[in-house]
């Protein structure tokens, strides 16, 4: 005997919810891939890759699990299988717990991530730019994309290994206020530079060079991304909790129908 009345309506609602879960799973997987390849996120990986990858893997895991839950939920609702609904409930509960863990991890590590980001940007400018190719390409993309230069400003490049490859004590390389130093071409506005530019330690920075540092701009972008991510996780979690309740009701309804048939 098929479900009728309100229970039939609930079955259709559960099916629609699982289509939503499928969409959310795809979005979370895309988010994890974005965090993996986007320079704004990858700049934070240098000093603490383990913690960063933990978050990325957790989001990817939730996305894949949501895809599985979505397919299973659609099949369970359409077939009206009590066993499938119980399995669906357990998996959906696992997803909800994983999402709560991800949200708590992001919130709890927010201050540490910001401190890590400041330290990483400074380290990249001082000792990794032009030394590590991948870091150089990443930071060039950041400077061009966010229209910024250096960690706190263009003068950061004066004491960096980019200008002083043989210097161990960074920041002490310029002994004369008239000594010049190079600024990467990615610090230039538009297409005004095709190669590195030269500036004088005590002189003004050319107008076609971005004057703002990258640290605060990266932090601002990261904060917006974190807020969006937390809002998405809370919204999805609320819908999933609603799905758990409906799954329990449907499971009880199917059990009652099966008992009546027997």
Number of strands: 2
User: Which residue ranges are poorly predicted, with pLDDT under 50 across at least 5 consecutive positions?
Assistant: 169-175
CATH fold name of the largest domain, please?
Cd81 Antigen, Extracellular Domain, Chain: A
Helical amount among residues, as a percent range? 55-70%
Organism: Sipha flava
Keywords: Membrane, Transmembrane, Transmembrane helix
Family: Belongs to the tetraspanin (TM4SF) family.
Membrane topology: Multi-pass membrane protein
Describe this structure in words.
By secondary structure, this protein is mainly alpha-helical. The protein folds into 2 domains: 1-78; 95-161 and 200-261, Orthogonal Bundle (Cd81 Antigen, Extracellular Domain, Chain: A), CATH 1.10.1450.10. The protein has helices at 6-37, 39-42, 49-79, 82-108, 110-128, 133-146, 214-261; strands at 180-183, 197-200. Strands 1-2 form a two-stranded antiparallel ribbon. Helix 1 packs antiparallel against helix 7. The longest helix is centred in the C-terminal third of the chain and has 48 residues, at 214-261.
Task: Briefly say what this structure is.
Helix content is about 65%, strand content about 5%. The protein has about 260 residues and is mainly alpha-helical. The chain folds into 2 domains: about 1-80; about 95-160 and about 200-260, Cd81 Antigen, Extracellular Domain, Chain: A (Orthogonal Bundle), CATH 1.10.1450.10.
What distinguishing features does this structure have?
Cd81 Antigen, Extracellular Domain, Chain: A; Tetraspanin; membrane; rod-shaped; mainly alpha; 3% strand; two-stranded antiparallel sheet; 262 residues
């Amino acid at each position: 005997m098929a479900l009728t009345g309100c229970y039939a309506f609930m079955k259709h609602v559960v099916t629609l919810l699982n289509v939503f879960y499928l969409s959310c799973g795809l979005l979370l997987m895309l988010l994890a891939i974005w965090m993996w390849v986007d320079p704004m996120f990858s700049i934070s990986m240098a000093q603490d890759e383990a913690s960063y990858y933990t978050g990325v893997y957790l989001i990817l895991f939730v996305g894949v699990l949501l895809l599985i839950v979505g397919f299973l939920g659609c099949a369970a609702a359409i077939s009206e299988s009590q066993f499938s609904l119980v399995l669906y409930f357990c998996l959906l509960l696992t997803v909800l717990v994983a999402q709560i863990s991800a949200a708590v991890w992001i919130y709890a590590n927010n201050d540490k991530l910001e401190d890590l980001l400041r330290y990483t940007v400074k380290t990249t400018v001082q000792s990794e730019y032009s030394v590590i190719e991948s870091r150089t390409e990443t930071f060039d993309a950041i400077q061009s994309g966010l229209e910024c230069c250096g960690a706190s400003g263009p003068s950061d490049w004066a004491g960096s290994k980019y200008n002083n490859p043989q210097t161990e004590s960074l920041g002490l390389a310029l002994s004369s206020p008239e000594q010049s130093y190079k600024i990467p071409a990615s610090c230039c506005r538009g297409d005004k530079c095709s190669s590195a530019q030269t500036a004088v330690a005590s002189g003004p920075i050319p107008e076609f060079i971005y004057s703002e540092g990258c640290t605060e701009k990266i932090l601002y972008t990261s904060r917006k991304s974190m807020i969006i991510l937390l809002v998405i996780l809370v919204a999805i979690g609320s819908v999933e909790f609603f799905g758990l309740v409906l799954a329990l009701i449907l499971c009880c309804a199917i059990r009652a129908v099966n008992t009546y048939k027997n």
